[in-house]
Amino acid sequence: VENNDVPIVIIGSGYGGAVSALRLCEAGKKVVLLEMGLNWEKAGIPFSNLLKPGKSSAWLKNKSIAPFMNIFSLTPFTGTLDRLDFDHIKIWVGRGVGGGSLVNGGMAVTPKESYFREVFPDLDAEKFYNYYFPLVQEELKVNVIDEQFLKDCPYYKFTRVGEAEAHKAGFKTIRVPNVYDFKYMEKEFRNEVPRSALNTEVIYGNNHGKNSLDKTYLRKALETGNLEILDLHRVQTIQLNDDKSYTLNVRQTDTSGVMIADKVFHCKKLILSAGTMGTLQLLLQSHAENGFPINEKIGKNWGNNGNFMTGRNWVKPLSGGTGAKQSTIPVGGIDNWDDPEHPFFTEIAPLPMGMDVATSLYLLINRVDKKGEVAYHKASQSLTLNWDESNTAKMRENAQYFIRKMNKANGGTRSHLLFNNGFGADICYHPLGGCVLGEATNEYGKLKDHENLYVLDGSLIPGTIGVNPFVTITAIAEYCIENLIKQKEFA
Ligand code: FAD
After folding, report:
1. Phi, psi of 284, rounded to the nearest 5 degrees
2. How does 369-381 read in b/e, with b if 16+ C-beta sit within 10 Å?
3. Are residues 219 and 236 in contact, defined by beta-carbon separation less than 8 angstroms?
């Protein structure tokens, strides 16, 4: 077994890991980042599109794992998209250098200030809205679609129809910023550059256009010369040593998931940025297997960010439906958050299936009235989730209200084509919480009962933030790492 001694290890290269890596490297610290997924840029393997799922489409599976229409068989490969199946919920996560930024839709939404204040009463909201949110919008290269392009482009008919129908039903719509470079998209449309968003590329990775973390934070961190990224390195368990340092048991694999080497890493400082489910798995599993100390708040205050998918069929079938050609990048949202009875936000989502299916797809984000809890089951070596229909009852009610109101004003039916009963209560893209800031950690993400362990990822957010979460995850990570460095935690 190969032994490695390094001062600082970060586990996971998603938003929390990428922010931590950049700020520590800028402060002159040497950092090793361990990522279980593949470094796609280095491997030079192209991402697959939605219509032809290939190598990048699934994490070591025999069949594709999109939310619907999985008719494709695959040769297992360390793809970008993984799905964790629990009894009442399926959770999709990104794998690879860049984490969720490789697979997500790039929607870069700043939360409503009133809700941010409600979720994080102890944070200085003014500082977040004046400093951290603008900072991450710049670092992540957030931009907005040109309104004229949106109006003219046939690939955005689904958005124009979606917005017109929402207005007719009395709902308010908003423009949604994104990290996809819209100037690039305009060139795609004019056939001046290779197509990505206009070629059904999204949840299996984008070959062009999208400013994922490998193009932003991680690239900048590598440019300092202080960062080493080891891909296809999965941390299996963590141990606490007598001198308060950590030992990590790590398995390196090839792209078919077969073991290449087992390695041991010793580090003084450890940052967990393995994503909500990855970080919880590491903490709870290590606790069960080697008595790793954790506090009683770990696993608690978990939520699906109110994710609830739904859709409508027969949307204007006679006047051309939602369009055969669709961009994969969403730019429209319906904002019903201020309705006291049915508060929700929903993305007007694309459904690029290569033909006009006259179907509108919506990913609702609701409040989470009843939180869940994550635990570890030793015999099966897997996480369990205390979460069932009672947790999503109010979300279903909101979806029902929304679909009824839309159909009444515009025609159409609840989408039985996409989901059983027309509702995808079990679809989750935004797992959050379980290691909540100020509860399981101190005010800056340092784990309670530990001197050298930090958590910086989605698990810090208590299960809900009211909009798509990566802007918030990035801003919280910036806030925490800045203060941890100031407090000389890494000196
Ligand atoms: P992640 O980005 O999940 O990164 C964690 C990383 O750690 C991963 O790369 C993982 O492989 C690695 N890892 C895990 N365990 C280990 C281990 N044991 N050893 C080594 N490495 C490990 N959010 C938005 O704001 N806007 C959107 O438009 C949007 N669309 C989405 C679409 C899809 C299909 C999905 C799945 C998510 C979407 N999200 C979106 C959610 C967003 O991507 C996540 O909230 C975000 O990526 C979470 O960031 P994170 O830093 O917590 O961890």
Report:
1. -70, -40
2. eebbebebeeeee
3. no
**DSSP conformation class of 374:** E
Q: How confident is the model at residue 156 (pLDDT cuts 50, 70, 90)?
A: very high
Catalytic (active-site) positions: 347, 430
Look-up of token digits 């309705």: 339
ipTM (interface predicted TM): 0.99
Q: Tell me: the pLDDT tens digits for 62-85?
A: 999 988 778 778 999 999 999 999
The domain 2-486 is placed in CATH, from the list 3.90.1300.10, 3.50.50.60, 3.40.50.2300, 3.40.50.150, at: 3.50.50.60
pLDDT for res 368: 98
State which ligand 1 atom lies nearest to the alpha carbon of 16: 51
- Asked whether 34 lines ligand 1 (CB < 6 A), one says yes
What are the structural domain ranges in the chain?
A: 2-486
- Sort residue 381 into left (φ over 0), alpha (ψ -120 to 50) or beta: left
Q: Write down the residue that tokens 């919880």 correspond to.
A: 280
Other beta carbons less than 10 A from residue 317's beta carbon: 15
Contact of 482 with 325, CB cutoff 8 Å: no
CB atoms within 10 A of CB 85: 10
With H, G, I as helix, E, B as strand and everything else as coil, classify residue 280: helix
At position 421, the amino acid (one-letter code) is N
- What is the rounded CA–CA span in Å between residue 237 and residue 283? 8
Residue 430: CB within 6 Å of ligand 1? yes
The tokens for 143 are 């931009």
Helical spans, DSSP H, in 128-274: 133-139, 147-152, 157-168, 182-189, 217-223
Rg (CA), the chain: 22
pLDDT higher than threshold 70 for residue 318: no
Contact 229, 39 (CB under 8 A): yes
Write phi, then psi, for 270 (nearest 5 degrees): -130, 130
Q: Is the CB of 273 under 6 A from ligand 1?
A: yes
| Ligand 1 neighbour 92 (Cβ under 6 A) | yes
Closest listed residue to residue 396, CA positions, set 366, 353, 434: 366
Q: What number is the average pLDDT over the span 361-377?
A: 97
| End-to-end C-alpha distance for the chain, whole angstroms | 30
pTM: 0.98
Q: What are phi and psi of 40, to 5 degrees?
A: -65, -40
Which ligand 1 atom lies nearest to the CA of residue 330?
28
pLDDT band for position 388 (50/70/90)?
very high
User: For residue 481, what are its two tokens?
Assistant: 């790492």
Q: How far, in Å, is the centroid of ligand 1 from the Cα of 81?
A: 10
Distance from residue 316's CA to the centre of ligand 1 (Å): 35
